[in-house]
Design brief:
The protein has about 900 residues and is an alpha+beta fold. It has 29 helices and 26 strands. Strands 8-26-25-24-9-21-23-22 form an eight-stranded mixed beta sheet, with helices on both faces. Strands 1, 2, 3, 4, 5, 6 and 7 form a seven-stranded antiparallel beta sheet that branches. The longest helix has about 40 residues, at about 645-685. The N and C termini lie far apart (about 80 Å).
């Protein structure tokens, strides 16, 4: 009879580490020579293969259904069915096309992401060396069974959970499982039963790496019974959370659906009250309900998010779920065990361009002896033109610097990269001696130089203010600079100045000089988000790194896994927001921390690379895995993967997410305003006893075509100002705030009144055909003006760059062309029920429709005034 072998998962009180080697072998029914005869085959049948059971893979059908599970899509499906039953087949077909288009975009994007980040099972070691019948054999890792004796050497990926029997200088990298950054030395001594998993030095865990030495170990658990198997099981039991955007869209869809039904009922009741035909009013009320639904919204959201995904790929992140792009913009807390890496590089300086002047640098070698002169050889005085700019440039090269300058035996020596060394020497010649690793500035974070990005950046704090310092290849720095320092002032970097700088760089390059540029920008602390470190490292190590990174204050303490064990969930939820660093934590602890933060309605982004991070990555609102050092389990559990393992990429993603959400707000507000204006016009016409101002196909044209060419460019509006200075949005805040709804309720009546006034005038003087044509033309013109006005929520449109969104200009131009076709092409006139109009009518429609923009300008001015008064009041208080 084979021994009953319990699991070695970290949450059990397993005994293996507390037993002697002899007791382990006895309990396993094995020996130092390994299993004998057919015993391995029997155990393989009993315990199963040494593999992890992965979650069911993503199927194409599953992705299709996932895209269709949205209240807005449900509304569109209902609208398509109702339109078909009412024999409005064109309307039904167009709406169905919108649903198909939206589904195709979402499916194609998420299918590509899933294919690039495949599989939980690849974590298992493919081969293992075991002793069986006293002989060493290489077998498939799947065939390893409890009781096998593993032979471990440097470079091996451990195939199962094992208890060490003998070791020689054995060290193991357990970071993927425990989060411990240093390799762990191993021995065979028995330990106390309560010893935490990370401190069990006589155990070696599945999927960890042997870095040094060798050893022999008895297998105590395989497959899903291992520690990594327990974590894989946790990942599978954690439900995929709805993103904030999905929750907001669900709420919006519900509101729109209820509003559409109420409006349809109101219109139906009014029509019946006026004595209209029952069947006709039923059809018309259904058409009105359909018109209330912004049919183009789901497609536009999918396109905007998909384009956001492509932008994130360019910035070093692969997004696996479309809504995750926006979720980062809602993030209030980032939990991370990454603190960045530090690299060393080097060089020497002979020429400088600063403040519009070309300068020379005297002195040779690493000795900090020399001076800065003009091209003519005149020393550059303190107050001379270009002196202040030179000091700023040198300070950038000095602060964003990891080299050190030392004097040894009378000779100056650089420790680090030659380029950085040269910049360091140049700054010393100007009297800037507290630089780089020996600096007065406190470095908060760093993006190391890489051949891919061709720049290095540091975020540094001095006197309470944070500044971003960047140095690197001239063309890269110039590319993302928008101002230049001249005569002590920041001046816009126009074409003329850009050409002058490029000419100076070309001149230096012609002299066989390597050209390096510098830039700076005042910065804000991590976009208004709270950053927490959650790590498996020891408390002292975590505290030192966190204080260096600016996460932990001097008087703050680190909370350890043992401390967490002594807290119940209620106490943890009460304290979690005030704790900056958690150390020596297990996967279960990470899950508890994330859940405690979410209990406060925090939107949590969790970063990680190890197997131990996977459950928390999946539990978080957005899980961010490392693409280079990350395990496949972590990538599988994540929503986004950083291809460069750079924490700064997360901040870039936050910026992109905030821009995207702001643009989605513009899109939604535009669509709700114009659609509500349509419904108000129709309802008012019925109440006032007027004829219907539009045909059904006109409404569909406005909702799909006119809206479509405007909303997509609005969804791609470039960012306004520094969005990272804004605080994260409140998690419970909807897509439209109360102020935005007030704006909608102010502007929609303007559209309805203007459209209905034009309709009534032309119908009464030139007949129904001309009246409907002019109402249609005026409504479309309202959409054009409204699209222009919607570009900004607060800033006057007259203070914005009119060419700031060239796509919107192109979209409105296309809409004008299409409108001309509908008004003047014979076949289109028959379908839409329109007639040709003259230039005077065009002018009237455009003039009346412009009222929505001017009313919106008044609304913006009132809002700006309220904000100014609120700021003054806060200052007085």
């Amino acid at each position: 009879m084979r021994p009953a072998i319990p699991s070695s998962t970290p949450e059990t009180t397993e005994k293996w580490h507390a037993l002697t080697a002899e007791q382990v072998l006895e309990d396993l029914g094995s020996s130092l020579d390994g299993l004998a005869g057919d015993e391995p085959a029997g155990r393989l049948d009993e315990y199963g293969p040494n593999t992890l059971s992965a979650e069911r893979g993503v199927s194409l059908a599953g992705l299709v259904l996932k895209q269709l599970r949205s209240p807005l899509i449900y509304l569109l499906i209902a609208a398509a069915v109702i339109s078909a039953l009412a024999e409005h087949y064109i309307d039904s077909g167009v709406i169905a096309a919108v649903i198909i288009f939206n589904t195709l975009i979402g499916v194609s994007q998420e299918w590509r992401a899933e294919k690039t980040l495949d599989a939980l099972r690849r974590m298992a070691a493919p081969r293992a060396r075991v002793l069986r019948d006293g002989d060493a054999r290489v077998i498939s890792a799947e065939d390893v069974v409890p009781g096998d004796i593993l032979l471990l050497e440097a470079g091996d990926l451990v195939a199962a959970d094992t208890r060490l029997l003998d070791v020689t200088e054995l060290r193991v990298d357990e970071s993927a499982l425990t989060g411990e950054s240093d390799t762990v030395g191993k021995d065979t001594d028995e330990l106390e039963g309560s010893t935490p998993l990370a401190d069990r030095r006589n155990m070696v865990w599945s999927s960890t790496n042997v870095t040094d030495g060798r050893g022999r170990a008895a297998v105590v658990a395989t497959g899903m019974e291992t520690s990594i198997g327990a974590i894989a099981g946790d990942v599978q039991t954690v439900d995929q959370m709805e993103t904030p955007l999905q929750r907001r869209l669900s709420g919006l869809g519900l509101y729109i659906g209820v509003a559409a039904v109420v409006l349809a009922g109101l219109i139906f009741a009014i029509g019946i009250g006026r004595g209209e035909e029952l069947y006709e009013m039923l059809l018309f009320s259904v058409a009105a309900a359909v018109s209330a639904i912004p049919e183009g919204l789901p497609a536009v959201i999918s396109v905007v998010l998909a384009l956001g995904v492509q932008r994130m790929v360019e910035r070093g992140a692969i997004v696996r779920r479309l809504p995750a792009v926006e979720t980062l913009g809602s993030t209030t807390v980032i939990c991370s065990d990454k603190t960045g890496t530090i690299t060393r590089n080097e060089m020497t300086v002979t020429r400088v361009w600063a403040g519009g002047r070309r300068l020379r640098v005297t002195g040779e070698g690493f000795a900090p002896d020399g001076e800065f002169t003009t091209e003519e050889g005149e020393p550059l005085g303190d107050g001379a033109p270009g002196a202040a700019e030179l000091e700023r440039l040198l300070s950038i090269g000095c602060i964003a610097n990891n080299a050190t300058l030392e004097q040894e035996d009378g000779r100056w020596r650089i420790e680090g990269n030659p380029t950085e060394g040269a910049l360091l020497v140049a700054s010393h010649k100007a009297g800037l001696v507290k630089c780089g690793l020996d600096r007065e500035h406190h470095r908060i974070d760093e993006i190391p130089f890489s051949s891919k990005f061709k720049y290095m950046a540091t975020l540094d704090k001095a006197d309470g203010a944070a500044t971003l310092h960047v140095k690197g290849a001239f063309e890269r720095i110039l590319e993302f600079s928008d101002a230049v320092l001249i005569d002590g002032e920041e001046r816009p970097l126009g074409d003329e100045m850009r050409a002058e700088i490029e000419a100076a760089a070309a001149l230096f390059a012609d002299e066989a000089l390597r050209v390096v540029a510098g830039a700076y920008r005042p910065a804000v602390d991590e976009a208004g988000m709270d950053v927490k470190m959650i790590t498996g490292d020891h408390a002292a190590t975590a505290a030192a790194i966190a204080r260096k990174a600016g996460i932990l204050e001097e008087d703050e303490e680190v909370v350890t896994g043992q401390d967490l064990e002594e807290m119940d969930d209620e106490e943890l939820a009460r304290r979690v927001q005030d704790i900056a660093v958690f150390a020596r934590v297990t996967p279960t602890h990470k899950l508890r921390i994330v859940r405690a933060l979410k209990a406060h309605d925090e939107v949590v982004a969790m970063t990680g690379d190890g197997v131990n991070d996977a459950p928390a990555l999946k539990q978080a609102d957005i899980g961010v895995a490392m693409g280079i050092t990350g395990t496949e389990v972590a990538k599988e559990a994540s929503d986004m993967v950083l291809t460069d393992d750079d924490f700064a990429t997360i901040v870039a993603a936050v910026e992109q997410g905030r821009v995207i959400f702001g643009n989605l707000r513009r899109v939604v507000m535009f669509l709700i305003t114009t659609n509500l204006g349509e419904i108000m016009a129709i309802t008012a016409a019925l109440v006032l006893g007027l004829s219907l101002p539009f045909t059904a196909i006109m409404i569909l044209w406005v909702n799909l075509v006119t809206d479509g060419v405007s909303v997509l460019p609005l969804g791609l509006e470039p960012k306004h100002g520094d969005v990272l200075k804004q605080r994260p949005r409140p998690p419970r805040e909807g897509i439209l705030t109360r102020m935005m709804m007030l704006r909608v309720l102010t502007l929609s009546p303007v559209i309805a009144i203007g459209t209905l006034s034009v309709f009534n005038h032309y119908e009464s003087t030139q007949g129904l055909l001309m009246g409907q044509t002019m109402a249609f033309m005026t409504l479309v013109a309202y959409e054009w003006w409204r699209a222009v006005s919607t570009r900004s929520m607060r800033t006057s449109i007259f203070r914005m760059n009119p060419l700031g969104n060239k796509l919107l200009i192109a979209g409105i131009s296309l809409a004008v062309v299409l409108q001309v076709v509908v008004l003047y092409w014979g076949p289109a006139q028959q379908v839409f029920g329109t007639t040709a109009i003259g230039l005077a009518e065009w002018g009237i429609a455009l003039a009346v429709a412009s009222s929505v923009m001017f009313v919106d300008e008044i609304f913006k001015a009132v809002m700006r005034g309220r904000e100014r008064r609120a700021r003054r009041d806060s200052v007085r208080q």
